[in-house]
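Q: I have 127 residues here and want to know how they pack in 3D. Can you give me a structure?
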Amino acid sequence: QVQLVESGGGLVQPGGSLNISCVASAISLDHYAIGWFRQAPGKEREAVSFMSSSGGRTFYADAVKGRFTIFRDTAKSTVHLQMNSLKPDDSAVYYCACRRTYSPSVYYTGVRNYDHWGQGTQVTVSS
């Protein structure tokens, strides 16, 4: 059974950094595309960053481009989201998601494209 577990969230001051992680069980990241989404209170879940199963293609939402970096450690089945220069608007619950894919160079951007989700980790950016 596929299981995703996020960790690393917390409270950080504006301008600070956080590295959140997503450990995947029962899958090989070489065969799954990964996505990071976030959801703030009263708002819809929105795209943050995506990675193809090859790891060679990534996507960043305009709101985080240049500040966030997605990367993975396939040996540990872990995907990370390094978040720098954090802003109060980045405050949200961050979710990782994955889907089986036979297209190693494709990433998927929509919520409906993902089959498996983690429980989320809270990120709060506040002074």
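Q: Anything worth noting?
A: Residues 84 and 111 are 24 Å apart (CA to CA). The two ends are 40 Å apart (CA to CA).
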